[in-house]
Amino acid sequence: MTARRALLVATCVAGLAAAPVHAQVADRRDEAATLVSKALEFESAGKHREAIAAWRAAMAAGAVLPGVLGLERVFMVLAQEDSLLPALDTLVPRFPAEGQLRSVQLRTLTTLGLDRRAAEAFAEWRERAPADVAPYREYARVLLYNNRAAAADTVLRLATEALGGTRGLVLEVAQMRAGIGQWRGAAEAWRDVMAAEPYYESAAVYSLSGAPATQRDGVRAVLGAKGAPLGATQALAFLEVQWNAPRSGWTVLGALAPSDTAVAIWRQFADEVERARAWATARDAFAAIHAVRPDADIALRGAQAALKADDAVTALRLAREAAQRIDAVRQPVDVLPVELEALARLGRAAEAEGALATAAPALGAEGVRPHQRTIAWAWIRAGDIGRARLALRDAPLDAEDAVAGWLALFDGDLAVARGALRNTEVPGQDAVSALALLNRLPQLDRSEAIGTAFLALARGDSVQAAQRFERAADSLPDAASLLLTLAARVETARRAEARAVALWTRVATEHARSTEAPEAQLEWARALRRRGDRAGARAHLETLILDYPGSALVPQARRELDALRSGAALN
Amino acid sequence: MPRSLPSVRLAVAALLLGVAAPAGAQHLLVPMDDAQANHLKAYGLAFGALKDDIRSEWLLNYRGGSFLLPDLPSLRRAAALAGVTFEGADAARVDALRREIAEGNMDAVPLEKAPRIAVYTPPDSPPWDDAVTLALVYAGIEYTKIWDDDVLDTDLSQFDWIHLHHEDFTGQQNKLFLGFRDAPWFVQARDRDLGTARKHGLADIPALKKQVADRLRAFVERGGFLFAMCGATETLELAVGARNVDIAGPFSDGTPMDPDADAKMDWTRTFAVQGAHLEFAAGVNAMSDIDGHQVNVPSRRQPLGTFTLFGFSAKFDPVATMLVQDHRTVIGDYYGVTTSFVRKVLKPGVTVLAHEEGAPWVKYIHGTYGRGSWTYLGGHDPEDPQHNIGAPPTDLALHPNSPGYRLILNNVLFPAAKKKPLKT
Q1: Is the ipTM above a cut-off of 0.90?
Q2: CA-CA distance, A506 to B159, in Å (whole number)?
């Protein structure tokens, strides 16, 4: 017997002994327990027909409530819920005070769509127990489960009238309000629920996550109000993650005073944003946890998140803090790769080399070799191609390795770069641009001008990169339009609008038949729109559509033209 | 300014749009069958031509209800910019086309003058709140927004065509009080309407909306074209028919509905419906039994099916034919506050334009009233079948060939058609 089944039997038998329904059958407890156990076994084995017979026998032996609940489960599986009604019609009048029987009756009638009978059953229960909250709670739950929030609203109103309030029904009120789109009211009810029972935070998040964008500020105001219970704050933070605003979520939680509880919540949140790949937020959450409760693994996760958020400075700091708390065996395996990657991105190649040298005795020659590639990349970022090559002296790269491709490109060796860059693990915009350029010049095997331009780009020197691409365009007419486009993209990215427009203009006018011309028209139009020159922007969009009807950018141009005409905002 | 090479670039554009555009073609044929890349903007092209006093023809039942326009550079340019497919047609092709039209159930209807369009919608409503304004904006068709003050204070005869935003003319705000009474947008709308009512010396919102409904009825009676969708259809009928009886629940005017309201309705005043029964329960989110789908009443809600457009004789029944021009005859249904019209409550003179096969309801109806005409289309948004409050707006750029939205634009254009004497 599985543990779950054993628990079910125990629960049923214990229930048998406790509830008033069971009082009269105490002398047959053993027989009933055996039958319940047998019925559960049939149920677990998927023998539904046999389970029905066994549950009926258990009921006859006195296990009325377990029998009804068992039959309800089996009939639901068989989609024969109506078969339960004759039994309920007999049992409810026999045990009128048994709330669980009445709950089953309401569930069954509502599931079958017998709304009038369900309403009558509810009315009868209310009449019998006028001061009891149970009829309202159970019927409201059944209706909410069936997505009938408006009907649940009616039931809860009746509760207010009859009981003088919805005390004991706050959970149902919260769910009902969310179901009918009263998002602010739902948030208020959930806040009240969590004031008493903070563990309902997940349910609140699930319930409120469907709030449309226009209603979310109301939810934020309620859950984030001063004095709101901690559960509400936590729910709001997780809602922000659901609403694609993880940074706002961390703003809410980051303000909590450090404590064991706060750290526990931060950990949950950090796990969540890590899953959501919100790296910058994950970095901050892990860093905050580590600051309060220093922990090597947390610091390492923060460092990794920082790297993914392109924040090498924080990654390096956290990696080094992790290194202080981690044993010597794990250091080269877990910390060193993160530290080297961060240093490489920062162009701190000498430090990276030093760190690798320190770890070398523990790593051994075979362990050092894989890191040489990172060291080479660090020297590339530092702008020293010679040292990069030197770093690879003892760890020669495959000729087809992407790093070798980049080195070749920076060196102006286009022939080698053309083959090797195809193997870039994660082709970013730089790799795509480089490959496009190399394929535009299939006969050209060497070009210092192209090499230095890409090297400047790799070093993060966008001013130099743009200038060098532009200069290269003068000497390489076959790829001039693409080189000017690369320069323009760099200028656009660094928001040097005037320089960018001058370059886009050159592409659009001097190279009007090139494949880059439509992009130049689109970007030119966008630049004009940003300056408020709508007529100019419109003219360029129209030129794109009319002169380059085969361009893949035409649908986008039409969309932006429509937006210009209607005055709609563009993303 | 960009270089200007209109003739070269238009020829390139035309070729790439899959178009044969012989030099010296005298007409542009804008096909509206599956060859058309953007059906919705094609209406905007035809409308724009009318605005520029360029006459055109609507070729009813010919290739999905095509348009025949003069071959002008400005029109070619507009079509290319909008992504509308067109074909050059010389005199011989046009002759052949006219012969084909003469021999079949087709007709060529001249389009003479751009109708003056008004949309009854709250001043601050965004275009995506309503399928018609969405279609008009996407197609590039100009319109004027009017609201209660305009309807009550200005001369509506300055407009040829009025569309009704999904308003509740019974003044009960679609009974949304039940679920949204605390929602800021609901409170704002209620306060705004109440302010307007008081400004016009009226006690409450139901009284205001009844008066507005009656002005709209008079607009049609005097020769106007009225088009309504969603809940505006049903509630306009109820408001007009309830001129002298209280049909609003206590949550909207403080007094209960007249218990004899059903019997006191004056169906002689309404456009489309007679003998319908009002919904008296305040807790039931329905106005009457006019709507077959009752989307907001869980126990009555009917599932969505498909509806079929009827075919009409283009030569003898051109108006109905215009209203059903489409490249599809069977269209997926979509919910609205009022999704459909139960057949048994329709007046005998109503023309059913589309129905759901075997269902007791119809989707799309039309009729005349006084010297004008009205058209009702059930549902809220043809490309958003469920349309929940707060759902993101429909982006028509993703639905340029929407057959459902074509029905709306047929209605916009048909007042432009020159009336021809019927062949009797």
Answers
A1: no
A2: 50
